[in-house]
Amino acid sequence: MTEFTPIASTVGGVLIGLSAVLLMAWEGRIAGISGIAARLLPPYLDGAFRSRLGFVIGLVAGPLAYAAVSGTDVVQTVSSNLPLMALAGLLVGFGSVYGNGCTSGHGVCGLSRLSLRSLVATLTFMATAFATVFAVRHVLGV
Amino acid sequence: MSFAVNLALGLLFGIGLVVSGMSDPAKVLNFLDLPGTWDPSLAFVMGGAVVTAFLGYRLVLRQPKPLASASFHVPTNTSIDSKLLVGAAIFGIGWGLGGFCPGPALTAVSMGAVGTYAFVPMMFLGMWLARMMAARRVAASA
After folding, report:
1. Do residues A13 and B56 lie in contact, with contact meaning Cβ atoms separated by under 8 Å?
2. CB–CB of A13 and B11 under 8 A?
3. N or C terminus: fewer CB in 10 A for chain B?
4. Domain limits at B126?
């Protein structure tokens, strides 16, 4: 069980949305994390590598900054089934880049631009994610 | 300058993920477990982020250009093709297996859970493979 946190989750969502808006205002780009992360790898097709590196370093430092400012520990429960996590990582990395977006690029940025393409992508990955959790927890019973 | 601004925006995004609870795979997997231990919090994350970005983008995209770039780079691809659907479907399966999408996986790098270090390198491998395959498709169709 995890606690239902509607207020904290809405506030966190607003911060995510604010970051996306400010990135558009500054760089003129979508805050799609899969696209930003994937372009840290070669080939480098534009001059935005340093910007992307800065964004990712900020992202990684986020929990440390939160813990330092709030004085509370960041709760995170990650599976220690390493083959499962390796497979999950491969699928997330491949799928999000092959489909041109993840929860942030298609989900947050695409939906807020009223993109039909992003809506279809979001409904698709939500559907397979729900189906996967159902299969793992209720069919396989893991 | 752009590096520092992007670092600050990445930090804001990462703090948003932590505050919202989305950086915790247990919370994500419970959101995806409708018939089990359902935690609806993530709907509030998406709601807060999409409403903020929807309003903010309307203000920002009314400007002639972004602050640090010559023009806005808003996605122009509107096609709903097999590449979009296959990519999104594969991404969703990985998301449902590990509870990480790319943003939360990157914030987790500073948190020390062993599963994260199986997930993230494989995520980058998957991203690289998808970019290679996409480049090959473009070359083949040219």
Report:
1. no
2. no
3. C
4. 2-141
- Pull the structure tokens for residue B133: 């395959």
pLDDT tens figures, A50-74: 999 999 999 999 999 999 999 988 9
Average pLDDT over residues A70-99: 95
Q: Average pLDDT, whole number, for chain A? A: 95
Look up residue A78 and give its two tokens.
């990650």
Number of domains comprising chain B = 1
Q: Do A37 and B85 touch (CB under 8 A)?
A: no
User: Are A131 and B96 within 8 A, CB to CB?
Assistant: yes
pLDDT (0 to 100) of residue B137: 82
Residue A11 above 80 pLDDT?
Answer: yes
- Spatial neighbors of B133 by CB under 8 A, at least 6 apart, are A98
- The amino acid at residue B43 is A
Residues of chain B contacting A100 with CB distance shorter than 8 Å: 75, 77, 83-84, 87
Please state at what angle helix B41-60 crosses helix B2-20, rounded to 10 degrees: 150
Helices B2-20, A49-70: inter-axial angle, 10-degree rounding: 50
Cα(A119)–Cα(A101) distance, rounded to whole angstroms?
11
Model pLDDT for residues A18-38, shown as the tens digit of each residue: 999 999 999 999 999 999 999
Determine the pLDDT at residue A141: 82
How far apart are the C-alpha atoms of B125 and B100, rounded to whole Å?
16
Pick from B14, B92, B115: CB nearest A132: B92
